[in-house]
Design brief:
By secondary structure, the protein is an all-alpha fold. Helices cover 60% and strands 0% of the residues. It has two helices and no strands. The radius of gyration is 16 Å and the shape is elongated.
């Protein structure tokens, strides 16, 4: 309760970025490389979802909600 926790949030976000790409590939691995599969907006949206999920879980894990 009364300590300091130092985390490297930058590294966590980088890992979430890679997880987002991996998730998108897993969801669409049966599709070919034509059309909507290679559209960058779809990749970026999946990456955003992964980063949002990671940041929210980190906030909850470190009890950082409403502290800044």
């Amino acid at each position: 309760n009364t300590g300091v926790v130092k985390i490297n949030l930058d590294a966590e976000i980088k890992n979430a970025f890679c997880d987002g790409i991996h998730n998108y590939e897993e969801l669409n691995k049966e599709k070919n490389l034509l059309g909507k599969y290679i559209e960058p907006k779809k990749w970026l949206r999946e990456i955003q979802k992964a980063i949002i999920k990671k940041v929210n879980s980190s906030i909850k894990e470190y009890n950082a909600k409403d502290t800044l």
